[in-house]
Structure formats: C-alpha cells, structure tokens
C-alpha cells in the first residue's frame, strides 16, 4: 500500500465525512445560503494566509529544484487566481476582504497545525498537512466539476480551483513527495506524520461542520 493510502486509511471515516459533506454538496447544488458561503470564505481566507507560509516552508525544504518547482508554480496560483477569488467573492457576497474575520476556534486550530508543521523543519510534516489540505479538496470538488459553469462564480470558481487535470497533477506530486520520503523515516518520525495527517483530516471535517452551522454564529 502506498504510504499516503496507509495514512488515509487511518482516518477513513473522517476523510469520507470531509469529502462528502453537506456543506460542499449544497455549494455544488447552488443551494448553499450566501451568508454561509461568506462566513466560510472569510474564515478560509485566514486559513490561506498560513497555508501560503506552509507552502513556502515546504518549497524551502524540498530536496532539489525539481522537487520544488511544482510547489513554486502552485504558489503562484494561490497568491494569484485564488487570492483574487477570495477578494472578488467576499466582496460580491457583501463582505469586506480588507477586514479579516475574527478567527473561529477551528480556524485557530488549523492555523496552529500549519504553523507547527512549517516550523518543524521536517519536510514530511509539511507534506502531511499539504496532502490533506489539497487531497481532500480534490476529492470533494472533482465529482462536481461539470456543474461549475452553471453556478454563481463564488461557488463555481471555488470548484474549478480544486478540480481538473492541473490540480490532480499537483495533488499527485504532493503525494509522490510524501511517499518518496516515507521509507527513510524512523518509526517515531512516521508516527509523527500519522498524527499530523489524521489531525489535519479531523480539522477539515470540523471546518466544514462549522461552516454549515455558520461561522458567524460562533
Ligand atoms: C480548510 C481548507 N482546507 C483546504 C483548502 C484547499 N486549499 C482550503 N482552501 N481550506
């Protein structure tokens, strides 16, 4: 079994819940109330800030230029099209993208996880969080890719950013990086990756649970 399949198998119920969630089902149907999407995007913009720093740390720790280039290209997407999406969508839904939301406890927990991974100095720890963050989004968004063109852009573009051959290739690259380093890790290091990975999946699930309830209600 691939190491990244082993990691997913450790938290299969949470993975399934995070990738087949009522929040994303409603988003893809276009029935998600706009205030819930706005609350989600304002919290997720806080997530993206620390995600960007984590990706930067991962690039800094990549073993070679070839190992770093796909992540460097993805950084351009995050700081380009995705950042612009947040600003456009939050404004269109009635928010102010220049006013950060008060962070919800789930967002705070996710920020802490990403900062710990980024500060660990350990490539595999950084990859554990990145594989979850991008792999879980690929899994929920891909089945809905054909619907995106018929949705308001704040739903449709969010699906498009997480589906399609380019994003599939990026997730495959992240998984390949983690798979490649796994066998050289000590049992303690592998256990630390398992902890980081399963915690990240729990938080992905909790993030969508909170988004469905309404972040602003917290
Ligand atoms: C919480 C969360 N996890 C993952 C992603 C995918 N980039 C995201 N935008 N937000």
TrEMBL record:
**Catalytically driven reaction(s):** thiamine + H2O = 5-(2-hydroxyethyl)-4-methylthiazole + 4-amino-5-hydroxymethyl-2-methylpyrimidine + H(+); 4-amino-5-aminomethyl-2-methylpyrimidine + H2O = 4-amino-5-hydroxymethyl-2-methylpyrimidine + NH4(+)
Q: In which pathway does it act?
A: Cofactor biosynthesis; thiamine diphosphate biosynthesis
Q: Pfam families attached here?
A: TENA_THI-4 (PF03070)
Which SUPFAM superfamilies does its entry note?
Answer: Heme oxygenase-like
Q: Where is the active site?
A: 204
Name a single GO biological process: thiamine diphosphate biosynthetic process
What Gene3D superfamilies does this protein's entry cite?
A: Heme oxygenase-like
Q: Where is the Thiaminase-2/PQQC domain?
A: 15-213
| Residue numbers binding substrate | 44, 82, 134
Name a single GO cellular component: cytosol
Task: Provide the alphabetized UniProt keywords.
Answer: Hydrolase, Thiamine biosynthesis
One of the entry's Gene Ontology molecular-function terms is: thiaminase activity
**InterPro entries, alphabetized:** Haem_Oase-like_multi-hlx (IPR016084), TenA_E (IPR026285), Thiaminase-2/PQQC (IPR004305), Thiamine_Salvage_TenA (IPR050967)
Q: What is its EC number?
A: 3.5.99.2
Q: Which family does it belong to?
A: Belongs to the TenA family.
What's this chain's function?
Answer: Catalyzes an amino-pyrimidine hydrolysis reaction at the C5' of the pyrimidine moiety of thiamine compounds, a reaction that is part of a thiamine salvage pathway. Thus, catalyzes the conversion of 4-amino-5-aminomethyl-2-methylpyrimidine to 4-amino-5-hydroxymethyl-2-methylpyrimidine (HMP).
What this protein is called in its record is: Aminopyrimidine aminohydrolase
